[in-house]
Amino acid sequence: MLPHQLELLAPARDADIGIEAVNHGADAVYIGGPSFGARAAAANDVSDIARLVTHAHRFNARVFATLNTILSDDELEPARRQIWQLFDAGVDALILQDMGLLELDLPPIQLHASTQCDIRTPEKARFLQDVGFSQVVLARELDLQQIAAIRAATRPETTLEFFVHGALCVAYSGQCYISHAHTGRSANRGDCSQACRLPYQVTDLEGRVVAHDKHVLSMKDNNQSGNLDAMVDAGIRSFKIEGRYKDMGYVKNTTAHYRKLFDDLIERRSEFARASSGRTTFSFTPDPNQNFNREFTDYFVGGRRDDIGAFDTPKNPGLPVGYVTRLGDRWVELETDDPATVLNNGDGLCYYTLQKELAGLAINRAEKVGVGVWRMFPKDRMTSFKDLRAGTLVNRNRDMNWMRLLDKASGERRIGVWLRLGETAAGFTLTLTDEDGHTANVAAAHSKEPAKDTARGEATLREHLGKLGTTPFAAMGISLDLTQPWFIPASLINGLRRDAVTALEAERAAAYRRPPRAPAVEPPAVYPEDTLSYLANVYNRKARDFYAKHGVKIVAAAYESHEETGDVSLMITKHCVRYSLSLCPKQAKGVAGVQGTVRAAPLTLINGSEKLTLRFDCKACEMHVVGKLKPAVARADASPLTFYYKARR
């Protein structure tokens, strides 16, 4: 990708979703292969990925395969074979976490450093660039100044990638081990149990309750719609949408939303260009609020904020729709905020109970009984709805009309093409030239007869030439380069057009070049640290060899190897519970009567029998969630892990 190109990168749970992501404007798509991806339940056969590749490459869009888990020794060879299969299928790049893979015999495929690599500093980004990564996915927690510093420290051809939308992991990616410690399911191996979405009681050192049943580790969803210009100026060139578990409607809607924003940006700022070909039109108006979300935040891009958490619920609260006016034995009557609002059979409604818990109100049937007044017949018994009463505010978090809209064909992508009809001594010729400069020319022999009705004949020619139908092309201009108006049968024009389109598609396919793999610098770059703890996620000997080659003298094994059995940091995060609860010493600074009374003492999180300690590193402005490996998890470990030297020998 060239430094002036802006890449919209969309997720794909499967090939069909990936194809629609391309149709709705994605410049690139990332998708999981058969195994070793950080979303274990989003795996795909190589043959399906090859189908996606064929479609994407028609528009010069790229396909990235995620192979971003840490691997045990006995998984390295299967992973290597899978990488070669993905390369043979036409995949453009691999998204990796495990550095052991760089020590294997890999095909000449471009490498991208996963967000799981925890890339927060210029030194880390520069190192990854120097060992052969062409694209690095920066930590979601960075602000604009930190992004700009990384941009200044790396080569222009190294692409900086950043998440702009979707669910947020509260931990620095790759720095969360709670799931493995409590359940044996490793987030670094694609199987997170999402302890961050659970409710917790928060207590202080004296056992006093600071917060009760709050989801204090659950973040709102990421939305950088308002920051794209600033992020471009800071140096981001690949803009990533989270969501390899998300459904078709989410991917269509979110991709279309950002496609429109980037098209507007590029229109305003001519120094930038799209990273792929074609223009997309939509049969709907994109709206991220219609997708599942926990409300939105731009996280730390503009600096620390105190409203980044979805503490009341990790569920989708939806959008306000109205309030309850009456209750019956089988129905709820609702007055909408906007009289034009239409409620549908199958809509999902919800409301907050008096304890601020989100309660669902799924609707079987909706009947309009007045202007802005609807009678709703819920799926569940009326007695099951806690605290539902007249005056209760109601949101809608599933709009069946919207879902049906996105179930249909909703996006069309076309590459601009110019058509020129000419003539030869023996007949006629048609030349197509596309927006990327590719040209195809076909000819057909035919006798020449003057047209009887010149104006009508020319209009008919233009009409038939422009019938590009279901092809990936759209006519941007049609020229008739003829010595005089000829009568040319529609069948001849249609045949020329079909043959020219086929030839142009073949020309485009032959001209497509996968991005090259960046060479590693020699002598090998030195890693920024000479000692690595379990936080480096080194899980196999090849990874250890990689770091040793790059100057690291002491390498500890990954947490999943169970060498760390005592209390350690199971999560490191920039989110601070103290700050969000207004208990941060920095917040109290300068406040009369408060300064000096608030200290960053540890807090405790309690969920059932589970307890975790929160410790606060105020100098780094980070929070550590501390706990230990459960004995049952350690006993159940079936992996024959034999890593594992503590020191280089």
Describe the structure.
The protein contains 15 helices and 32 strands. It has 649 residues and is α/β, with parallel strands linked by helices. The chain folds into 4 domains: 5-168 and 220-282 and 284-290, TIM Barrel (Alpha-Beta Barrel); 169-217 and 530-543 and 553-649, no CATH class; 315-407, Thrombin, subunit H, CATH 2.40.10.170; 415-511, no CATH class. Strands 1-2-3-4-5-6-7-11 form an 8-stranded parallel beta barrel, surrounded by 6 helices. Helix 1 (15-23) packs parallel to helix 2 (46-58), helix 1 (15-23) packs parallel to helix 8 (248-268) and helix 5 (144-153) runs parallel beside helix 7 (228-234). The model is unreliable at 640-649 (pLDDT under 50).
Order the strands across the largest sheet as they lie in space.
1-2-3-4-5-6-7-11
CATH homology group of the largest domain: Aldolase class I
* Helix/strand/pairing category: alpha/beta
Percent helix = 10-25%
The rough form would be described as: globular
Q: What is the CATH third-level topology name of the largest domain?
A: TIM Barrel
Note the total helix count: 15
Rg calculated over all Cα atoms: 29 Å
Which secondary structure elements does this structure contain, and how are they paired or packed?
Blueprint: E1 5-12, H1 15-23, E2 28-32, H2 46-58, E3 62-67, H3 76-88, E4 93-96, E5 110-113, H4 122-130, E6 133-137, H5 144-153, E7 159-166, H6 178-183, E8 200-203, E9 209-214, E10 221-223, H7 228-234, E11 236-241, H8 248-268, E12 273-274, E13 279-282, E14 296-297, E15 319-327, E16 332-336, E17 348-352, E18 358-370, E19 373-378, E20 393-398, H9 400-407, E21 411-423, E22 427-434, E23 439-445, E24 449-450, H10 454-465, E25 473-480, E26 486-487, H11 490-511, E27 531-532, H12 541-549, E28 554-555, E29 568-573, H13 577-580, H14 585-588, E30 603-607, E31 610-617, E32 622-627, H15 631-636
Parallel strand pairs: 1-2, 1-11, 1-12, 2-3, 3-4, 4-5, 5-6, 6-7, 7-11, 10-14, 21-25, 27-28
Antiparallel strand pairs: 7-10, 8-9, 8-30, 13-21, 15-16, 15-20, 16-19, 17-18, 17-20, 18-19, 21-22, 22-23, 24-26, 29-32, 30-31, 31-32
Helix pairs in contact: 1-2, 1-8, 4-5, 5-7, 10-11
